[in-house]
Amino acid sequence: MAPTLPPWAVRLRAERRNRLWSQREMARQLVEAADETTRARLPARESIIRRIRAYEAGDHQPGDPYRLLYCRVFGIEETDLFDTPPAAVVPTVREWTGTVVTVPPLPWVWEPRGTVNAVYDTSRDDLMLDRRQAVKALAVTAGLPLIDPVQRWLAKTPHQPVGTAANGRIGAEEVAQLETTANVFRTWDHSHGGGLARKAVIGQLNEVADLLRESHPHAIALRLFRVMAEMSKIAATMSWDCGMQTAAQKCYVLALQATKSVGDRPLGASILASMARQLLYLGHPRDALELVRLALDGVRGTASPRLMAMLRTREAWAYAALGRPEAFRRATDAAEDAFTDISDGDHDPDWITYFDAAELAGVTGGRYLDMARRDSRYAGDALHYIGRALQLRQRSSMRSLALDRIGLAQAYLLAGDLDAALSVGTAATQTATQVQSDRVRVQLRELCADIEPHRDPAAADLAQQIRETLAR
User: Fold this and answer.
1) Are 230 and 351 in contact (CB under 8 A)?
2) Which of 42, 184, 241, 345 has its CA 20 to 30 A from that of 66?
3) CATH number, domain at 52?
4) Do residues 187 and 76 both lie within one domain?
5) Among the residues of 65-167, which ranges form H helices?
C-alpha cells in the first residue's frame, strides 16, 4: 500500500491532470504566471519540473514564489489550494492511481424513470451554469467509487418496460428528426470540436428527456431512449473536449444508464470506451483498462468488427500508458485483425462509423508517440502510423487533422528531424485556428514547449506563432 499523500499534494496533481497538462507543461504555466522580476530569478525548466514532482509526491509544500504562482495558474485562493482541502477532492489509498472523487456523487440511477429524471435535472442545471464556472469543476470519479457502480451495467435486473401507452404526443416522423439531429451534432463535434455546439446539444438533450417524462408507445419510447443516450454521449464528449471534466463524466454515466434501460449493449460498450479515454487523458490507466474489459465482456460474441476494433485500441491505449509495450502490441494486432473483418454488410450504427482506417492509424500512432517519449526507438512507428492517418483522414475532420499534425511534428522532434517538425508544426498551428477544442490547445502547448529549447530562428518563429494562436 502506498503512503497517504497530504491533501494539498493530491490537489496539486489533480488540478494539473484535470487540465490535461504534463509536468513539463505545468512548469511552463508557472513560468508564464510570473512577473518579469520573478521570472528572471526562476531556475531552468528541468529544475522546476523536479520541484513539481516533489510537490506532487508530498515531499514538501511549495514555498515562495511557487505557492503564489500555483494559485495564479489554477485561479484558486491560497487557503483553498494548500490549507483547506475542498470537499470535492479527497485522497484515496489503494493499489491503483490516486484519484479525485466528486461530491456530490455521480448520478447512479439504473431504472428508466429515474434515468430520465436525472438526465432532465442534470441538463437543466447545466444550461443555467456559466461555462467559466463549469470549467472550474474539474474533479472526476475514479477507482472503486467508479468501477464498482459501473459493474451494474452488466448485471441482470428485473425487466422494467419502457413505454406502455397506446398513443403519445410525438410519432415516428418526429423521432426520426431527433435521430437526424443527433447525427448532425455528432458530425459537428468530429469536424470542429465541441466548443461552439455544446450548449445546443445540452438544450436538445433536455428536450428529449422532457419528452420521456410523458407516456409513449413502446416503439417510440425505445427510440427516444436511444436518442437520449446518444445525445448524452455527444454532450459528454463535447464537454470533455472543452475541458469540462466533471460535466463530461456525469453525461457519460447518464448515457450508459440510458443504454441499459433499452438493452443496447453495443452503444453502452462505446460509452464505456469513451469514459476510459477520459480517464486515460487524466492519468488513470488502470481504471480505464477495467472499463474497457467490462465493455469487452458486455459485447463478447456480439460486437461488430468495427466496434471490436475500436475497443481493442482503447485496450492497447491503456497498456501503452501502463508501460507494457508487448501487451500494447498484442491489443493493437487484435484491433487491426478485427478491422480487416469489416464488410459492407455489417450495417454499423452511425455512432461508430467515425472509426475508420484513419482513426485506427491515428490512435495507434498516438500511442506509439506516447511510448516514444519514454523510449525514442518508437518514434519511427509513431511517424509511420500518424503519417498514414494524415493520408487517410477526411479533410472535413479538422480537429483530428490538427491533432494528427501536432502529433506528427512531435514525432519528428523525437526522431531528431527538426526541419520536418517545424514544417508540419506550422501546418498544425494553422489547422488549430479552425477548431474549438481544448484538447487541440493542450497538445499545441505541448508542441510549443517541445520546440522552445531548440536554438534555431525558425523554431523561435514557430513557438511565437503558437503562442499567438493560443492567445486568441
Assistant:
1) yes
2) 241
3) 1.10.260
4) no
5) 66-74, 78, 112-128, 131-136, 144-150
Amino acid in the structure at residue 280:
L
| Residue in this structure with the C-alpha cell 478485427, named with its chain if needed | 338
Three cell numbers, residue 351: 455512432
* Owner of C-alpha cell 410519432: 171
Strand, helix or coil for residue 45 = helix
Q: Has residue 338 been placed in a domain? A: no
CB count in 10 Å sphere of residue 415: 17
Same domain for 27 and 171, yes or no, is no
Q: For residues 6 and 64, give the distance between their C-alpha atoms in angstroms, rounded to a whole number.
A: 19
Task: Write out the residue range of the structural domain in which residue 163 sits.
Answer: 97-263
Express each pLDDT in 13-45 by its tens digit.
888 887 778 888 899 889 988 887 788 888 888
Select from 146, 139, 157, 352 the least CA-distant residue to 247: 139
Which letter, b or e, does each residue of 433-446 get, where b requires 16 or more Cβ atoms within 10 Å of its Cβ?
eebbbbbbbbbbbb
Buried b (16+ CB within 10 A) or exposed e, 245-275: bbbbbbbbbbbbbbbbbbebbbbbbbbbbbb
Higher pLDDT: 247 or 197? It is 247
Based on the fold, state whether residues 141 and 117 are members of the same structural domain: yes
In the chain, the number of structural domains is 2
121 and 214 housed in the same domain: yes
Same-domain status, 156 and 64: no
Residues constituting the chain: 472
pLDDT digits (tens, 9 = 90+) for 259-300: 998 899 999 999 999 999 999 988 889 999 999 999 999 999
Contact call for residues 276 and 320 (beta carbons, < 8 A):
no
Residues 459 and 8: their CA atoms lie apart, in Å, by 37
Are residues 79 and 103 located together in one domain of the fold?
no
**77 and 112 fall within a common domain:** no
Short-list 358, 351, 422, 350, CA closest to 389: 358
The amino acid at residue 423 is S
Predicted structure pTM score: 0.79
Same domain, 62 and 111: no
> Does the residue 63 lie in any domain?
yes
Q: Where are the alpha helices (DSSP H) in 282-349?
A: 285-298, 305-321, 325-340
- Please state whether the peptide bond connecting residue 65 to the residue before it is cis, i.e. omega within 30 degrees of 0: yes
Which of 244, 263, 282 is the last residue in one of the domains?
Answer: 263
Q: Kindly state whether residue 153 falls inside one of the protein's structural domains.
A: yes
Does residue 459 sit within a domain? no
The separation between CA 409 and the C-alpha centre of its own chain, rounded to angstroms, equals 22
C-alpha cell recorded at residue 468:
499567438
Give the Å distances, CA to CA, from 292 to 97, 165, 269, 271, 286: 17, 37, 8, 10, 10
- The whole-angstrom separation of Cα 266 and Cα 292 is 13
